[in-house]
Amino acid sequence: MAGQLESTRESPGIHEDTTPWPRLVRSSLHATALLASGFLAGSGGRTQAATITPDAATSQVQFDVAASGRLFAAGPGGAEHPIEVTARFVFRETPMTGGVRREYEQASALISRGETAVRKTLADDAGEVLVTLAGASPRAWLADGFLSHEEAELLDTPFDPLLAERLRPDAAVGMAESWELPDDVVAGLAGLDAVDSGGLEAKLESVEDGRARLRFSGTVVGRVDSTTSRLTVEGTATAAATPGQEEGDWLIAGPLSRLEASIEERREPGWVSPGIDVRATVTMHRTTRDAMSSAVAATGRLAAAAVDRPRGTGSAARLWHRHTRGRYTMVVDARWRMIEDGPEGLVMRLIDPDGMVAQCSLVPLPRAAAETPPVEGTVQADVRRSLGDQFGHFTESEAVTRDDGTRIVRVVAEGAAADRPFRWVHHVLTGPGGHQIAVTCMLEPALAERFAAADRELVAGLIVLPDPPARTAGDPGSQDRR
Predict the structure, then answer these.
(1) Are residues 283 and 327 in the same domain?
(2) C-alpha distances in Å from residue 131, one per residue of 60, 106, 261, 314
(3) Within 10 Å of residue 119's Cβ, how many Cβ atoms?
(4) Which residue of 27, 50, 299, 336 lies most exposed, with the fewest beta carbons within 10 A?
(5) At 404, is the secondary structure helix, strand, or coil?
(6) Are residues 387 and 290 in the same domain?
(7) CA separation for the pair 152, 66 (Å, rounded)
(8) How far apart are CA 411 and CA 395, in angstroms?
(9) What is the tens place of the pLDDT at every residue in 41-96?
(10) CA angle, 190 as apex, 188 and 196 as ends, to 5°?
(11) What is this structure's pTM?
């Protein structure tokens, strides 16, 4: 095991050009990971699992997003890449207490970055989702399982129909009368954590044949993962209208039947995303027809069911990830954002409303003898060796065996990197068959309270997978492919 535990030598406090997805282009994670620039990561959210009960009729929604622009790294001469995204979502939506239920017929995005293009499609066993609000941000989740990071990002769009309904005024309005949207609604529509300045204003533009046309626009400056973002938004929406009690007033009721929005966004590079300079358009059309739109092509159907998706009481606060070569599977806090997932292992960063808290790497290790899993002394020696002159001293050490037979050795080391104090929390998990995974979290001691027990919670949701069963001559897939 010597040399396998790799320390993260860059300080989390140093600005880096790592890249997860900005909200308009988030599904590009695995596509852009193919590029040597090293760009890439993800996003998450927290919500409570609402008690969902039907209370209104089902409608059909078609929702399209198109974005183009560039991704750029920090600093003069930083790497820059053109990007284009086209996405289509077609689903039946039923309003529920606490949110909506969506049954997807189509959910896919085509992401092009330079010469590289990839299509992402929602898996069939994730086709029925619940969507509730985390604050003012819509978050999708499964009632009896867990979405993957990639699936959650695919379904996370600007101007989600659930929140777009709040473009309507709360009371009757007169012709050409305007109203300001609350900051939390603006933040949710634009994909911001908070609004610092500016906002969006809507007004009643016209009423014809019982249909009101609303126009909205504005410029917003806010924050996403502690990174500054500036957006310019303009668009229109249509909804049913009935005369109010006062002459000339109109009540705008019922769900929006149509929405069109244009969004220009410039966001500075951050801890878990590149800089972006993009223009996006969003179009939503809602109808009460039962039949799905004929625009759904056969190639746009949902993908095959995901392999080994964990089942249980779902929540948008937790997401699923499976190692590409089947070494482990885990359900983790959605605040862990994926930065890189490649041959050298998985790198994630823990983000809270105040910024980055810690960085964590997961690295599969060589198989150990099942009867002699690593002990504390062995792990300590390897940690000391891998940290080198960054090592200071050990503060904690323990070894436990879980009910599933997985042996876990946990050691905590204090030291310094780039002349700053750091804490490294190392776990080595050994499955019953000897398969091993190393988990290393790095943080500044001053962030320990915000970090809390994040490493233990991560490890608790991590399952070390055994070797896949050997195929026999009679097994499907064992055919001679010469």
Answers:
(1) no
(2) 15, 16, 21, 12
(3) 16
(4) 299
(5) coil
(6) no
(7) 18
(8) 8
(9) 222 333 333 444 544 689 999 999 999 999 988 766 678 889 999 999 999 999 98
(10) 85
(11) 0.82
